[in-house]
Write a sequence for this structure.
């Protein structure tokens, strides 16, 4: 192990919790942060709403069917950003090595901390206590020797929990975990591993490196290391966002003209994700994958970035006109992305290499 002490802090049901904190009449009720309508998706759900199966990124109408008593609240990203800044101020009392992942979660390297607390566990406990006392919100935290393990740990006792993985406990902790808990192991990779009899991380450890590399290419090396609890990636403060995107595979291959409903939903997901960023994206990207697995992208970089979800949606839909394929061509996947991020007020020089 590298001797680092990493804390991953994850605010509990952040947007919904802020709404419940600021509006006492919402406390104890199933709150869904979303605009109503069949084109809308859920930004966040309180734990009361999650009890009914409501989850982030779910289509809002589906959430309403699962939980007819849900209270829908339109998102207020200006307020969420302000609370996120207050949380970050608490982090900064303890360390300058902070890597935000979004408005509601971050990695902190507390190998050395500013307050002289004896252990990383005490740092995490203090941070959670300060968030609770000063902001009337709860956060879960994971403490571990690296980023990979700390993120798993922060989810272990959610909500409002703290879980610690000591260096000597790494192997025993990982051994029974399903392989799907490893970052990057999606449904397809998990199914492939399960077919090979690799259901747990412990079973995955029995595969030699060259075999994993043969099956998964460069990712095979990463799989080999993570199965052993190895993650040398440092906490990188102020890592600039390069792109934000959402993509999905159709239940069955569709014609180009039939992709509009999916593109509308993906544009909303991408727009909501981009609201977590302080920087502004100037390039819109449309991605399509044909039934033959050929990837096509079209992009537009304008002097002014899209100013609303509807504007992003219209740009993405207009890029469909630039695809120019055989009318009978069918597609299996669509994606909408934002890139070319800049700080507010930074001049937008035309990119020589648009996404």
């Amino acid at each position: 192990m590298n001797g680092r002490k990493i804390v991953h802090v994850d605010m509990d049901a952040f947007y919904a919790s802020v709404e419940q904190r600021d509006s006492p009449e919402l406390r104890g009720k199933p709150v869904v942060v979303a605009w109503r309508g069949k084109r809308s998706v859920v930004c966040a759900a309180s734990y009361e709403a999650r009890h009914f199966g409501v989850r982030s990124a779910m289509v809002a109408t589906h959430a309403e069917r699962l939980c007819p008593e849900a209270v829908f609240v339109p998102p207020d990203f200006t307020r969420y950003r302000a609370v996120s800044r207050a949380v970050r101020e608490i982090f900064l009392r303890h360390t300058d090595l902070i890597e935000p992942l979004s408005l509601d979660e971050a990695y902190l390297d507390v190998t050395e901390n500013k307050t002289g607390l004896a252990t990383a566990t005490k740092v995490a406990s203090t941070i959670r206590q300060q968030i609770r006392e000063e902001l009337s919100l709860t956060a879960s935290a994971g403490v571990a020797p690296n980023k990979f393990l700390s993120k798993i740990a922060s989810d272990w006792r959610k909500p409002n929990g703290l879980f610690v993985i000591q260096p000597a406990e790494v192997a025993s902790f990982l051994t029974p975990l399903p392989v799907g808990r490893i970052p990057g192991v999606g449904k397809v990779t998990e199914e492939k591993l399960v077919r090979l009899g690799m259901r747990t991380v412990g079973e995955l450890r029995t595969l030699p490196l060259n075999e994993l590399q043969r099956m998964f290419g460069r990712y095979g090396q990463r799989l080999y290391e993570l199965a052993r609890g190895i993650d040398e990636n440092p906490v990188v403060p102020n890592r600039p966002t390069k792109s934000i995107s959402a993509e999905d595979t159709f239940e069955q291959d569709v014609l180009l003209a039939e992709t509009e409903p999916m593109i509308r939903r993906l544009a909303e997901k991408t727009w909501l994700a981009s609201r977590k960023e302080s920087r502004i994206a100037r390039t819109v990207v449309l991605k399509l994958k044909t039934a033959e697995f050929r990837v096509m992208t079209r992009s537009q970089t304008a002097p002014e970035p899209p100013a609303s979800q509807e504007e992003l949606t219209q740009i993405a839909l207009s890029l469909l006109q630039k695809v120019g394929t055989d009318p009978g061509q069918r597609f299996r996947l669509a994606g909408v992305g934002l890139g070319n991020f800049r700080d507010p007020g930074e001049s937008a020089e035309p990119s020589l290499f648009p996404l």
Summary: The chain has four domains: 6-13+78-170, 16-75, 175-226, 243-342. The first strand starts at residue 6 and ends at 11. The chain is about 35% helix and 20% strand. The CA atoms of residues 141 and 162 lie 5 Å apart.
